């Protein structure tokens, strides 16, 4: 996954531990245990904070999360703010989206 601002300055992070806030301007974000399967029964939170007035852009190049109706069990949740419902994403695709 490549994350970036509207200036094409790309940023992301490979977390060394779970559930952390990210503010670096370069790196990668992968699931725990990547490239092997992600772990069962695990919650993983990465809060991404860009510079003021920036826009975070997420680009998924390979996405493979177990699919089920309404993404009830395994999913990536995208939120602008912790108080909003957000968008759940699950399933599999390759190529930029």
TrEMBL record:
Domain CUB: 18-97
Organism: Trichonephila clavata
Keyword annotations: Disulfide bond, Repeat
PANTHER family: OVOCHYMASE-RELATED (PTHR24251)
InterPro entries the UniProt entry points to: CUB_dom (IPR000859), Sperma_CUB_dom_sf (IPR035914)
Pfam hit, one: CUB
Record protein name field: Protocadherin Fat 1
Repeat in keyword set: yes
PROSITE patterns given in the database record: CUB
Superkingdom of this protein's organism: Eukaryota
Keyword hit for Repeat: yes
CDD domains: CUB
Gene: FAT1_14
């Amino acid at each position: 996954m490549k994350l970036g601002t509207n200036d094409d300055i790309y940023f992301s992070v490979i977390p060394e531990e779970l559930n952390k806030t990210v503010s670096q301007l370069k790196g990668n974000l992968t699931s725990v245990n990547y490239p092997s399967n992600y772990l069962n029964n695990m919650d993983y939170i990465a809060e991404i904070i860009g510079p003021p007035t920036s826009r975070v852009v997420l680009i998924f190049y390979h996405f493979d999360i177990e699919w089920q109706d309404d993404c009830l069990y395994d999913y990536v949740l995208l939120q602008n703010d912790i108080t909003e419902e957000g968008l759940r994403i699950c399933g599999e695709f390759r190529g930029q989206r």
